[in-house]
């Protein structure tokens, strides 16, 4: 079976190619997710052991039919999806996750994969209700399959946000007339989020 990642890349390329030539609006949806038709917030990483790319993503239940158009249950209650030639969902430890998982960011450093994701305790029908706050969990893995809980990121700005980007920060050094990365320095990761999210 073609991987979802390849299918999405091909669909996007073909759609934009045809749209550019015809001068018309691109067809909707531009690509399809075979699970719930709601893939979002992707993070792509190369699995060195399996020699393939893996895409971790928020798996919203866009196909869910709800009588109330303002009901947001469809964005809650799903696992983090994994797209490769063997699609599925990530098997993440229950000790540091919950019913709703969003927006995974995955980085590789010195034999370890680091994942940060938003965890919401439960499934909710409205935004901003008590108990619907998110938190950011940090997990690690050496094989992208078995994950370990490393803790929760403590934020001074509070928990009412879920979109953020993790940036890997390196220490730069200038030596022998060249700028390079100090490989002996500790690797740092920084979390950034849009201004409306409450994280600065």
**Total DSSP helices:** 1
Q: From the alpha carbons, calculate the radius of gyration and give it in angstroms.
A: 19 Å
Overall SS class: mainly beta
Number of strands: 12
Shape: globular
Major sheet details: 4 strands, antiparallel
What string gives the helices and strands in order? Answer: HEEEEEEEEEEEE
Strand content: 35-45%
Summarize model confidence as the mean pLDDT: 74
Strand order of the largest sheet: 1-2-3-4
- State the share of residues found in helices, binned by percent: under 10%
Distance between the termini: 42 Å
How would the blueprint of this fold be written?
Layout lengths: L3 H19 L16 E9 L4 E8 L20 E4 L4 E2 L10 E10 L2 E9 L13 E8 L6 E6 L11 E5 L2 E4 L2 E4 L6 E5 L8
Antiparallel strand pairs: 1-2, 2-3, 3-4, 5-6, 6-7, 7-8, 9-12, 10-11
Describe the protein's architecture and organization.
The protein is mainly β. The chain has 1 helix and 12 strands, in the order αββββββββββββ. Strands 1-2-3-4 form a 4-stranded antiparallel beta sheet, with no helix packed on it. A hairpin with a 2-residue loop joins strand 5 and strand 6. Mean pLDDT is 74; it is low at 1-20 and 195-200.
State the main characteristics.
disordered N terminus, 200 residues, 4-stranded antiparallel sheet, disordered C terminus, mainly beta
């Amino acid at each position: 079976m073609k991987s979802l990642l390849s299918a999405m890349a091909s669909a996007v390329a073909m759609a934009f190619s045809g749209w550019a030539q015809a001068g018309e609006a691109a067809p909707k949806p531009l690509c399809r997710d075979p699970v719930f038709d709601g893939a979002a917030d992707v993070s792509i990483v190369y699995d060195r052991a399996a020699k393939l790319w893996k895409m971790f993503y928020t798996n919203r239940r866009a196909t869910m039919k709800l009588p109330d158009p303002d009901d947001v249950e469809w964005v809650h209650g799903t696992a983090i999806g994994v797209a490769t030639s063997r699609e599925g969902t990530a098997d993440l430890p229950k000790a540091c996750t919950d019913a709703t998982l969003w927006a995974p960011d995955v980085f590789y450093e010195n034999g370890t994969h680091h994942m940060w994701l938003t965890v919401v305790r439960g499934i909710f029908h409205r935004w901003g209700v008590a108990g619907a706050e998110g938190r950011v969990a940090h997990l690690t893995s050496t094989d992208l399959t078995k994950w370990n809980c490393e803790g929760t990121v403590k934020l001074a700005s509070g928990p009412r946000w879920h979109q953020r980007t993790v940036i890997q920060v390196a220490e730069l050094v200038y030596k022998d007339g060249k700028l390079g990365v100090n490989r002996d320095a500790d690797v740092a990761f920084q979390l950034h989020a849009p201004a409306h999210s409450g994280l600065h």
